[in-house]
Amino acid sequence: MGCGGSKSVEDQQSKQVEKTLASAQREDAKTVKLLLLGAGESGKTTFLKQLKARFSAPPTARELSEVADIIRGNILEFMANLATAMVDLELDGDLQDELQPTVSKLTSMNTKDTAELTPVFARNLLALWLSAPAQAVFARRAEFQLVESHTVFIERAVEIADPRFEADFQDMLKARVKTSGIKSENLVIDGVNFEIFDVGGQKSERRKWIRCFDNVTAIVFFVGISEYDQMMHEDETTNRMEDAIGLFHETVTNEAFEKTSVCVFLNKVDLFENKLKTVPISSVPLWSGDYQAFAEKESQSIPAPSELDLGIGFFMTKFQEAAGGRSNVLFKPSTATDTSNILAVWEFARRAILLRALQANFGITDASDFELAGLRN
Ligand SMILES: Nc1nc2c(ncn2[C@@H]2O[C@H](COP(=O)(O)OP(=O)(O)OP(=O)(O)O)[C@@H](O)[C@H]2O)c(=O)[nH]1
Ligand SMILES: [Mg+2]
Q1: Rounded distance, CA 147 to CA 131, Å?
Q2: Which residue ranges does the record annotate as region Disordered (predicted)?
């Protein structure tokens, strides 16, 4: 009796455990695990900031208050790199005498000390930036390191140096802090739980990625498409695009991602479009031969594609070739700093990701069957 009684308690307990496990598994199935991967500076964190602001909450006053100092650091770093390159490229000889002290200060300063960006120094920086030698150095920016999207901050240096400056969300999107380690964010998007992982993309960070490789529903792989003429920050002998193509190949052919759907965001299209005007892809020795052959073939189609479409098509082909035989990679051009653009791109990717998850897990092909599959709460 006692024995039977205890068995029934055990039964009840084990049923409870099973129930809990089943419910945990269901909960797990309802969560889409999404990895944001890609090389450093490609736009992963910027995209996550956009998703958080849209689907969770806008940045808090406290978060925004930290942005002002980040931007001041970004300005000092940009101008210090430019000044150092000016000296290295021996273009400082053409500089007006009154701008020389600014170059000297920039080449010896600690750019992390943002108190150095006083309104007076900001005025000097702006004068230096607008000078012909500085613009000549900027035109040769592929030869050194510069976060080229930060020109927008240099133009506003005086306003930003003012202690009363308050950053807004647009400023926050453009500010840059390199990610170290793995950050995750849970967002409910149209009734579906997304667990999103944002990793650091620089070489030293990549060995940490493996920690989040289990049970991944989808990857969004970010490519800085405007970086086709730039060298890596952490390895100045390797072209950034070449590195991204190799990294993409390594990632999508990893057996952990056999069933994972893959989207590629060809990001920084705004900078890409601008750069094409002064740095044709055919002028970069690494791409020149392949690009000319590609452009010749494509320009026979009617109507003839624009330079922008040709450029996007060319690099998309390079990533397709690196996809290790995967035919269903979704490619989308994007501008992560442009809220309406990136949210539209995301909406497209989100639908594709959910549809493929349904197809893979439940054999469902009709989007209206989402509820049946329990993917919506
Ligand atoms: N103009 C422009 N700037 C962009 C775009 N996407 C990102 N940026 C800027 O590029 C810089 C780098 O972006 P992040 O989002 O920090 O890049 P990341 O991929 O997270 O880099 P890591 O953390 O080093 O891996 C930031 O200053 C962004 O504001 C874009 O589409 N257009
Ligand atoms: Mg980041």
Answers
A1: 19
A2: 1-23
- Total number of domains in the chain: 2
Residue of higher predicted confidence among 327 and 276: 276
* pLDDT tens digits for range 138-158: 999 999 999 999 999 999 999
Instruction: Give the annotated binding-site residues for GTP.
Output: 41-46, 173-179, 198-202, 267-270, 336
Question: Which of 155, 174, 193 delimits the end of a domain?
Answer: 174
| 62 annotated active-site | no
- Among protein residues, the one with the nearest Cα to ligand 1's atom 23 is 179
In tens, the pLDDT along 174-229 reads: 999 999 999 999 999 999 999 999 999 999 999 999 999 999 999 999 999 999 99
Place of tokens 């060809």: 266
41 is a catalytic site residue: yes
**Binding-site residues, ligand 1, Cβ < 6 A:** 38, 40-46, 147, 149, 173-174, 176, 178-179, 200-202, 222, 267-268, 270-271, 335-337
Query: 363 in a domain, yes or no?
Result: yes
Last residue of a domain, one of 145, 174, 203: 174
Same domain, yes or no: 201 and 340: yes
Q: Phi/psi of residue 2, each to 5°? A: -60, -40
Same domain, 316 and 337: yes
